[in-house]
Amino acid sequence: MPDAVENDPHAIIQAIREAAAEEGFVACGIAPAIDSQGFPDLVRWIDAGYHAEMEYFPNRLDAYRNPKGVLPGAKSVVALAWPYSALEHEHESTQTSVAGRNGQDGEAVVGGKVARYTWQATDYHDVIHPKLKRICKTILRLCPAANARGIVDTAPLMEREFAQLAGLGWRGKNTLLLNKTLGSYFFLACVLVDVELPPDTPHESDHCGTCTACLDACPTGAFVGPHVLDASRCISYLTIESREMIPEPLREGIGDWLFGCDVCQEVCPWNRKPTKRAMSNESVLQSDWRLSPDTPRGLMELSTLFQLDEETFRARFRKSPMWRTRRRGLLRNAAIVLGNVGNIEHADALILGMRDAEPIVRASSVWAGKRILAKSPSDARSGILANELKRLAIDEQNEIVRAELPS
């Protein structure tokens, strides 16, 4: 590559923007790799315990101070936005009729809702990382002596802060980055490079105004205030990151969310309509965001999950975002949803859960079984479910499970 191009930062930026557009990113901006202005807020957030069990925050705290903690010598941050393809879809009702999928045609099946970003068949990391690697190669072709690293929400970087510095949007009261065109239905990705590039104009304005729709709508009251989230009360954290029992006071608030939650996004005025720009690159969306057959229209059948052993769970979900919570987490969540929206027709699934090898699956199924019995008429299935609870009261040794059994 001629020195004239290598020494021309504007030519480098133009090449980066073109490469990003070719890869399907719908926004691209440049920010300086400076000390994080939000780092003190992060420290206070951790000190307050709002990070819950996510110990990777305090364990890597110092690295969040500056992008150099991720890429030594970093001088610039390329911030990128990748849209969800699910914007065209809407959740069906939780109690749905699924012909020919589970038993007889027209049989009522309970579907647990999953967050929009999981509707595709492949984990977004596996889709976006190769794109970032190709963008890094573009940079290295122009600047052979440079170092570049692409990241997608797994490195200690204040992505939203640098995306705002790069002009991609502003931070909403629900802590997510908002963009006038894209709303908040997009992934953030970054490329760090140790080359100084002219930065874009930061997005200084806030377009939330007096709106508090996201704060008011949270089913579990996870927002301490504007821009402050208590992860230990957040449905996304509870159903994805947490490896423990979901605290009893929060279970009813989980509602029918099986994996993740979109409530604070769905009520946001900036997300009311699918955006033309987000859907403009149809060929990229069709090739990279094939909808998963497991979650048609954002729902996943619950009863059949309890039939999965570790091997079949791995085969079904290993390359899906659902893998994050592992089998025991997904079955725990399924039991909670059945306890909230299921009925006596789902007794067989819960009995399987009560006999599961994982204590949190058994315990969550016990809680759900008690709820269903309390609202169900007496019939043969009620008796079978009640007998299973009586059996556990005699045989169960695990304290987590025993704590959920009827006194």
From TrEMBL:
InterPro entries: 4Fe4S_Fe-S-bd (IPR017896), 4Fe4S_Fe_S_CS (IPR017900), QueG (IPR004453), QueG_DUF1730 (IPR013542)
Origin superkingdom: Bacteria
Keywords, sorted A to Z: 4Fe-4S, Cytoplasm, Iron, Iron-sulfur, Metal-binding, Oxidoreductase, Queuosine biosynthesis, tRNA processing
Gene Ontology MF terms: 4 iron, 4 sulfur cluster binding; epoxyqueuosine reductase activity; metal ion binding
Biological process terms in GO annotation: tRNA queuosine(34) biosynthetic process
SUPFAM superfamilies in the cross-refs: alpha-helical ferredoxin
Keyword Repeat: no
Start and end residues of each 4Fe-4S ferredoxin-type domain: 199-228
Pfam families, sorted: Fer4_16, QueG_DUF1730
Protein name per Swiss-Prot or TrEMBL: Iron-sulfur cluster-binding protein
Originating species: Rhodopirellula sallentina SM41
